[in-house]
From TrEMBL:
It is found in: Membrane. It comes from Glycine max (Soybean). Residues 12-299 form the Sugar phosphate transporter domain. Its main location: membrane. The keyword Acetylation does not apply. SUPFAM superfamilies: Multidrug resistance efflux transporter EmrE. Keywords: Membrane, Transmembrane, Transmembrane helix. GO terms for biological process: transmembrane transport. It comes from the Eukaryota. The chain crosses the membrane at residues 7-26, 38-61, 73-91, 103-122, 129-146, 152-169, 190-207, 227-248, 255-276, 282-299. It is a multi-pass membrane protein. This is Sugar phosphate transporter domain-containing protein.
Length: 306
């Protein structure tokens, strides 16, 4: 029994790793290598798929009980979270147009730093001094990696920092806005409500900022039908990331997920370098390694302070 349970957990983690890294690499391929330069539309495709699959998983397959929105205020809170979530995903996709996946992941690893900053600003929550100390190598590593990155792009770097900050802000806001017992939603139900709201935000943005994107996509499909399959598979994979994230947390723990997430970043870096063959420097890899070490130490310090 234990053996089958262990195999199931390993399978879940493998699926989570594969979907996470897969959607990241496919985003990079579409936005940079393939030349599909529409990150807002791509994010809207992701959110549309998440809306549909979330409804099927909860309303039809009954994977988790459906939780309802209880008030207009709760809806507005979810809408605010959805807006911040949109910003983080769109900016993350924009950064992939200009930065290699390896450097994108190095910057993304600074999420704990921004989480600690926003938690202090918005809730006055102070961590132990040792926890703050572990953030020094997190930030220092990115500074070193930036200096040693052969493909460094200033705009891409700024947008990637903004995406990382928005991701951290979303997690802090979620803790604040949906903290009362009557408003708490599990991650699958939260996605069920956030994803369609995100589509509402993204639709006018892509129509205004990415003019005639649907016509261009259809024109591309006439020349190469694979673009449609890429978009469909990529969108389905984006939902699968959220589903496996929920299942891994359910069958392990949030702390295990955090540790696995740290390792996932390193795996994504290696895989992306092997696939895209982007140049890397020893300085850049040393910087990224220092950041990952800082994140591991931060996780350990947080665990001990509880």
């Amino acid at each position: 029994m234990k053996s089958s349970s262990r195999l199931f957990t390993i399978g879940l983690v493998s699926a989570w790793y594969s979907s996470n890294i897969g959607v990241l690499l496919l985003n990079k391929y579409l936005l940079s290598n393939y030349g599909f330069k529409y990150p807002i539309f791509l994010t809207m495709c992701h959110m549309t798929a998440c809306s549909l699959f979330s409804y099927v998983a909860i309303a039809w397959l009954k994977m988790v009980p459906m939780q309802t929105i209880r008030s207009r205020l709760q809806f507005l809170k979810i809408a605010a979270l959805s807006l911040v979530f949109c910003v983080s995903v769109v900016f993350g996709n924009v950064s992939l147009r200009y930065l290699p996946v390896s450097f994108n992941q190095a910057v993304g690893a600074t999420t704990p730093f921004f989480t600690a900053v926003f938690a202090y600003i918005m809730t006055f929550k102070r961590e132990a001094w040792l926890t703050y100390l572990t953030l020094v190598p997190v930030v220092t590593g990115v500074v070193i990696a930036s200096g040693g990155e052969p493909s460094f792009h200033l705009f891409g770097f700024i947008v990637c920092i903004a995406a990382t900050a928005a991701r951290a802000l979303k997690s802090v806001l979620q803790g604040i806005l949906l903290s009362s017992e009557g408003e708490k939603l599990n991650s699958m139900n939260l996605l069920l409500y956030m994803a369609p709201i995100a589509v509402v935000f993204l639709l006018p943005a892509t129509l205004i900022m990415e003019e005639n994107v649907v016509g261009i996509t259809l024109a591309l499909a006439r020349d190469d039908v694979k673009i449609i399959w890429y978009l469909l598979f990529n969108s389905a994979l984006a939902y699968f990331v959220n589903l496996t994230n929920f299942l891994v947390t359910k069958h392990t723990s949030a702390l295990t997920l955090q540790v696995l997430g740290n390792a996932k970043g390193a795996v994504a870096v290696v895989v992306s370098i092997l696939i895209f063959r982007n140049p890397v420097s020893v300085t850049g890899m040393m910087g990224y390694s220092l950041t990952v070490l800082g994140v591991v130490l931060y996780s350990e310090a947080k665990k001990r302070s509880k």
